Amino acid sequence: MAGRAAVPEVIWARPERTGRGPKPAFTRADIAAAAVRIADADGLDGVTMRHVATELGCGTMSLYNYVPRKEDLYELMIDAVGAEHEMFEPTGDWRADMLRNAEETRAIMYRHTWVPRLMPGVFGFSPNTLRYLEHCLACLEPLDVPAGTKTELIALLNGVVTTYTGNEIATAERTRSMPWTAEEENAVRMAYLGSQIATGAYPRMTAAFTEQSGPVDLEAVFRRALERVLDAFDPESRQSG
Amino acid sequence: MAGRAAVPEVIWARPERTGRGPKPAFTRADIAAAAVRIADADGLDGVTMRHVATELGCGTMSLYNYVPRKEDLYELMIDAVGAEHEMFEPTGDWRADMLRNAEETRAIMYRHTWVPRLMPGVFGFSPNTLRYLEHCLACLEPLDVPAGTKTELIALLNGVVTTYTGNEIATAERTRSMPWTAEEENAVRMAYLGSQIATGAYPRMTAAFTEQSGPVDLEAVFRRALERVLDAFDPESRQSG
DNA sequence: TCCTAGTTACGTACAGCGTACGTAGTGCGC
DNA sequence: GCGCACTACGTACGCTGTACGTAACTAGGA
Question: Is the pLDDT of residue A122 over 70?
Fold first, then answer.
């Protein structure tokens, strides 16, 4: 035991105020808000300890009194936007409710485009994350399956929302710090894809790509994916075909 | 137009050899292999331009002759491991074939734990990615749905594989560069979660957590998710309940 | 009431990153 | 055989997260 580095506490287990010493100049909420403001404006890469400290008006290293590691700052940010989830009263129609939850998550992500990039790593049980989980379970009350299946539904649905919305955002945001636009980049990629398909090396892809006409409706693709996932858990849907 | 920065070519559109000047000392495959070796051994964060150059035995900046941006190095890496996919002869049972594809992707990710971290950003159409897509379409030949639905199936399935396997790997690898183990960290997190649930603020979560006994079988959870997704596209399954 | 220990605040410093730029050497195409 | 596109690579810049040391502050215990 002696000399072993202690495992750091989860930040939520850390009390904001310990009682001794000078009064902290900021609350955790202040810091989270500042970081979120920066991320919204400059992207996630703009969120540096220095930048956040400047935004708060304090020295860089002072931040470390509140946030032991940068990762914890991320957790604060995720929790902060988690508060934007509307925890509405369940209607009794679990499908509609979960659909609404998913669309809301998607909307939050479009409002804060850095969220999907943080999601896979930051899975911590922040207060608002727990509240959202509880809310989802409340929406799923009418669904007659074991509790374990419900959590699996929530996980799968959240994963799909994050993946789809995250991909859309990533392609749009990739060029944020670059001297060309997302459209230009996409055109180059598509031109290359076209040239590859034109070689005839991928006949089935050729068929798939020539079939569709016009641009892809990402919103529609997203919604179809959600419906499919919900279908897979819906006893009604599976009997009626 | 004048003075505008040109959109950089996709790296696959760049010829490896232009004909003029000294012979390149390495091939793209050499570089990809070196980067993959490092990532496997030291994790993705070990893959730095300096490190890869050292592994190859050349100066750091020489690498930029082959790989204009680090992002392109990532694309090389993804393509390299894409070669590990076995493009088997479709059996006629599309469900079984797609399940096999998914399990293979999962296996590749466990062999190269950095792959999921790269997937969301690097969606490029590398040669091996295209070959894999074509292979999936071949497996889906027996499924009687529009080609667009098939690509949506592939996307959804791949997304689920990446999300689930990526999450598992992330929790296990998070502590790679830290002085404590993943088990210790997980214990701390779970202790906190337990303390939160014990407050009674999340009654439905309490029920869900007390219901299950013993550790979660991640492999089983993963496989159930795959089955659900496939169900959602399977006409047979939806009629027979 | 005063002392002291635990905090807060923050400047300095370090190791590491991606990569812009300049220069020197090489060998193919004209 | 000349010229130029290419390879090679050292140096340098601006940026990152954060370890560490020091000074100021304040609440709890004597």
Answer: no
